[in-house]
UniProtKB/TrEMBL annotation, chains A, B:
Molecular-function annotations in GO: tRNA-specific adenosine-34 deaminase activity
Name of the molecule in the record: tRNA-specific adenosine deaminase
Source species taxonomy: Bacteria, Pseudomonadati, Bacteroidota, Cytophagia, Cytophagales
HAMAP family in the record: tRNA_aden_deaminase (MF_00972)
Binding-site list for Zn(2+): H46, C76, C79
PANTHER family found in the cross-reference section: CYTOSINE DEAMINASE FAMILY MEMBER, TRNA-SPECIFIC ADENOSINE DEAMINASE
Organism, scientific name: Rhodocytophaga aerolata
Listed cofactors: Zn(2+)
Length: 138, 138
């Protein structure tokens, strides 16, 4: 998660909403990404989406069944839908997203085999987001 | 929707699950795409995702508030989540997706301002999908 947090810091430096993600497969980071919705003018360019696309490119495989995605913020519905398609082994996220998090929907979104862990480096990840939005308002 | 269906036919020819999409803005098609999950080894490469990314590139704008997306199959949750972020004016889809369609989730997924129309060219779109899966089994 520290590597995902470093990606979030890169997003922060780039004036993007600071969310970072990495994909780990067999103890190796195979993809790193951060949110680039502003730079790319693309609402789909969330850290998770870019990370799973990069991981799939790396593996030349659509399914990431032996991979773990670490992301600093709870995935939104779009990202959770993508993670479901990718059939990840595990998803670990940091801060909760009380407005847009996928867990707000009362249905199972992720793949039934995907394990979920939350709250890892949640405070740092949330503090970074709060700082970003504080800067934006000033 | 006929243009979206043409895109689905291109997917069919490419041995991809035949779903096509176009984005229309001010009476002009600004993006056309079809599902490319196999070719790109990428579960996020659904027709809708590629179409809204292409439309946003065309407009140099993240939000597609004056645009209509036509897609031959009901969007999945990932795509519906993306369409929500893109704040489309209207989404028109063809066939219902009884297994993966976003309307299976009992929550409002799309943006509150997005109008939805369904069932346009549903029969042709569904027949094409059925033919694809029949070929796959044989």
């Amino acid at each position: 998660m520290q590597e995902a947090y470093k990606q979030a810091l890169l997003a922060y430096q780039d004036k993007e909403i600071p969310v970072g993600a990495v994909v780990v497969c067999r103890n190796k980071i195979i993809a790193r990404a951060y949110n680039q919705t502003e730079k790319l003018h693309d609402v789909t360019a969330h850290a998770e989406m870019l990370a799973i696309t990069a991981a799939a490119n790396h593996l030349h495989a659509k399914y990431l069944t032996q991979c773990t995605l670490y992301v600093t913020l709870e995935p939104c519905l779009m990202c959770a839908g993508a993670l479901a398609w990718a059939q990840l082994d595990r998803v670990v996220f940091g801060a909760k997203d009380a407005k847009r998090g996928f867990s707000l929907v009362p249905s199972k979104i992720l793949h039934p085999k995907t394990k979920i862990t939350s709250g890892i480096m949640a405070q740092e990840s949330e503090a970074l987001l709060q700082q970003f939005f504080r800067n934006l308002r000033n």
